[in-house]
Amino acid sequence: MKLVDALPEEAPVALVYNGSTAAVMMASPFDLSEFLVGFSVSEGIVEDPSEVTEITAIKHPHGYEVRGRIPDDRASAMDARRRASVGPMGCGLCGIESLDEATAFPGTVAPMVAGLETYARSALDALNAGQKRRDQVGAMHAAGFFTADGLIALREDVGRHNALDKLIGALAGTDVSGGAVIITSRLSVDLVQKCVRAGISGLFALSSPTRAAVELARETGLTLMVLRREAVVAYTDEKEDCA
Predict the structure, then answer these.
(1) Are 116 and 148 within 8 A, CB to CB?
(2) What global pTM score does this model have?
(3) For this structure, is 94 an active site residue?
């Protein structure tokens, strides 16, 4: 008997501000308004999600376009660091014109709420239970935001950085000071930068971080932890691990 798998969608998504394309990313074509808002914040195009207005998602024969408006001064700054090339899913650093942007210092964050790591495993359980699209088609990353009260929101995408951008967009207007992100991927520099720019103080994952990600997290004050089978391993604290 021949079996046919349901497969995840992946399409070019153009992110357009004030009529000018800033980036074209390969992404899952859903939650696109949140994708635009989250990308705007996590890439430093705007400082506050409310600066992105008049959002419209348009389907084209070969992809999608998400249009929004930002203040003129933001648009001028964005034009100075133009991103306008198609990038494969998963890299998160596609199309940048300057190598300096790849390791740009994103600022600093306040310390993560003490003891929040004790809620990470229950957040992971909730994340796994909430990944409806992964259950349908597989091959989907997810990023979730949790506090001591549980998992607040999650978003999925074929690209890990896209999932995080969608989550950041979904959290617009939410006080993120009391929570952290948990993500189903390795921890890289771009994920650290995105969380810090969004004001998120903690980042948890299932796979080890890169050395560069740990170094940047330490410089910014971001708490970086990995959920192992036997412990929660802290990479930015003095302690090696947590029970």
Answers:
(1) yes
(2) 0.89
(3) no
